DNA sequence: AATGAATGAGTATTCATTCAT
DNA sequence: GATGAATGAATACTCATTCAT
């Protein structure tokens, strides 16, 4: 591979290779997917791979990052315009679950990455970003007393783990709920965990006292 | 390797190899740990590995299962004699966190396994077993109205994911709480998620009405 | 190795490897010939072997089959245009002996194969094909009363064994006849065994009676 | 292994190992039969093998020689007391076929040996011995004008090959004759090949002329 | 005699990467 | 841009043989 300016056809080819690779990585994991599998499924010769990519590892990282950004964008779109922090959290959770359902292979890819020690840092970093996004909303909610006091980042990590766990269960077919029901379940599970219901009860009580 | 009768020395050697292997697998992962690394770190010849184990993969699985069983035993010991379902859940969570803290390398090993596609099923299975253990207590708690109604397995999966997430954060040094504080935090987080606090509030209210 | 389109150079290289391998297998046998010996004697890197062949065993089988077909072709060429069954048998026998004399290494290869249990079936099969070729001529000769009645396949096996035995003796230098004399000897030996001379005598007698 | 005087039990054990080894070698061939297979099927530990035998190869040779001698003895017994050379040839052929039928595993062993380049000489030598036995009778028959003139060794090789070929076919189940019929067929096939029938015809004619 | 432990040389095969055309 | 050829380091696993007890 050389630093390069690609023609239109070149960009297309590169894109094609990435997309085939993503599928294969998602399905079989990093080690089990050989360079030759990728080029074969794109119908080109082995040597061409190195025209477009530096090596297998770099390609993998690139794919992972792209997947992560896609997910982030999906969340941003879902939250857009929503001001209430609790609702932002809820919508973000639902968007994650939906994204995973719709892009199962990106999700699998992400999981597969997390399974390779070489990429653990990358995934850790992604989860961190994710957690930070969530933590911001939690902090805002705490600020407005919609949630009881607590460390936003710490709580956010719990939420992220929960969402991923249920996305996994859903993808593996272990849960036979429809997507809407699952979203509703996970959202309320997380809100309870964050203490939203206690606050609601307390508020009611407070209001009653007046 | 062949079916065999081991002498005391043999059992010792086998044990030694397993333990060296566990450390290496935990530290470097399955692929990066070569058979030769294992025997070298035990100070014996290559061929001896195959006297005791069928192959690298089988050994790895064996180690994973042993680790899983160790964790389970630790939980069982912690819960022993405790009748109250909610307390069983709480003690189980704390035991898991403690076990991970004390046996960091077994924990890392477990994670490493989850990262290899070849062993995904094994880890999945372990998580399932784990979730079932937890689900039993949740069901009992619901039965006694200590928790609001819900699908025990579904809820259990959320708990398991949460516990593992925080064990991970703690192991990676991302949380600077001491172990006791962490246990307390995770326990209350999970109980809230399961709805324990709502029930408590409801009960209080009920009692107040009389 | 993967299904592939070979360039001219590729076909040439593949051919070269096969031919080097054939020599080595013939000389040292299957087990004693290592993949590295083959590539070394072709002056290429180890990995290239697996670009052209699936593995050592497959290559060996391929070579054996090629040798068998070569022999068959040599026989076919020798018989071509000959109508008389007895002469077809005779020419076939002579052609086999000549082929073995001229392609001693293919012959040795063939023997080497017969010596490996893994390939016994392959050689058995070849002998069968061989015997069938011969049996067809024997049947025709019986039909025309050039040979006394008998089971053609059964008789053919005797002929095949005899021919191979003498080819072996000749190759090992145990017989100090020239090739022509050997051919003559073996042909008449086999024809006698098939009963050709009795028939000839009977015919003479019959003619004498008229 | 050390030069040794064995106790009664020792001789028994050694015999047992040889017999198990013979079966395994016959069934799977030299390379495919591992030392461990031998000791296992005798129910003893690996190390014991080297108490009784120098190594695998030596054992194999020993077994081969024993098998060859058994066959020779069987032939000698069959011929014993028979004075007529032609009948000695016939009885020898029949005895060989019968021996192979009755001791299929020794026969297979012998074949297996012939298939290994390391033992080719051993088998060649055995065939030579065999051929010499037969050649002696052929020479005697020629002497008495029971067979037409010819090189006895050369002819004997043809007979040996034929006998082995049919023994093989019979063992592999390719011929569905009973043993007696097969003996009769092979005997007359060989006698024809040696020219016995021509001589008989010539004699008849000669007698007629008087 | 007998056992099970230990050795280590030997070999096939894989696969990312580079090269020549 | 594209192809197929070529490289070679890396690694799991086998098995005859020897050793200590």
Ends apart, CA distance between termini of chain A:
72 Å
Class from helix and strand fractions of chain A: mainly alpha
The global form of chain A is elongated
Helix content percent band of chain A: over 70%
Number of strands of chain A: 0
Question: So how many helices of chain A?
Answer: 10
Beta-strand content bin of chain A: under 5%
Structure commentary:
- The structure is a homotetramer of 210-residue chains.
- By secondary structure, chain A is an all-alpha fold.
- Chain A is 78% helix and 0% strand.
- In chain A, helix 5 runs parallel beside helix 8 (152-171).
- The longest helix of chain A is centred in the middle third of the chain and has 27 residues, at 117-143.
- The C-D interface holds C 28-29, 31-32, 112, 114-118, 120, 124, 154-155, 157-158, 160-162, 164-166, 169, 172, 175, 185, 189-190, 192-195, 197-198, 201 and D 28-29, 31-32, 112, 114-117, 120, 124, 154-155, 157-158, 160-162, 164-166, 169, 172, 175, 185, 189-190, 192-195, 197-198, 201.
- Chain B binds a DNA duplex (21 and 21 nucleotides) through residues 4-7, 9-10, 13, 34-36, 44-51, 55-56.
Secondary structure blueprint with pairings:
Four copies of one chain form a homotetramer.
Chain A: H1 8-28, H2 35-42, H3 49-52, H4 56-79, H5 85-102, H6 104-114, H7 117-143, H8 152-171, H9 179-194, H10 196-209
Helix pairs in contact in A: 1-2, 1-6, 4-5, 4-6, 4-7, 5-6, 5-7, 5-8, 5-9, 7-8, 8-9
Chain B binds a DNA duplex (21 and 21 nucleotides) through α1 and α3.
């Amino acid at each position: 591979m050389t630093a390069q300016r690609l023609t239109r056809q070149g960009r297309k080819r590169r894109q094609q290779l990435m997309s085939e690779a993503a599928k294969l990585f998602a399905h079989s994991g990093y080690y089990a997917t050989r360079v030759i599998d990728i080029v074969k499924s794109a119908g080109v010769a082995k040597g061409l791979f190195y025209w477009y990519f530096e090596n297998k590892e770099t390609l993998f990282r690139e794919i992972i990052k792209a997947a992560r950004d896609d997910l982030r964008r999906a969340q941003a779109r879902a939250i857009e315009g929503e001001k209430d922090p609790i609702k932002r959290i809820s919508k973000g959770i639902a968007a994650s679950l939906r994204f995973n359902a719709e892009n199962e292979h990106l999700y699998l890819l992400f999981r597969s990455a997390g399974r390779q020690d070489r990429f653990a840092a990358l995934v850790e970093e992604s989860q961190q970003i994710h957690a930070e996004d969530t933590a911001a909303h939690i902090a805002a909610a705490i600020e407005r007393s919609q949630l009881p006091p607590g460390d936003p980042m710490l709580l956010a990590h719990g939420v992220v783990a929960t969402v991923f766990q249920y996305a996994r269960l859903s993808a593996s077919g272990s849960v036979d709920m429809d997507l809407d029901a699952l979203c509703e379940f996970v959202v309320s599970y997380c809100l309870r965990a964050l203490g939203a219901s206690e606050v609601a009860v307390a508020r009611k009580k407070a209001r009653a006292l007046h």
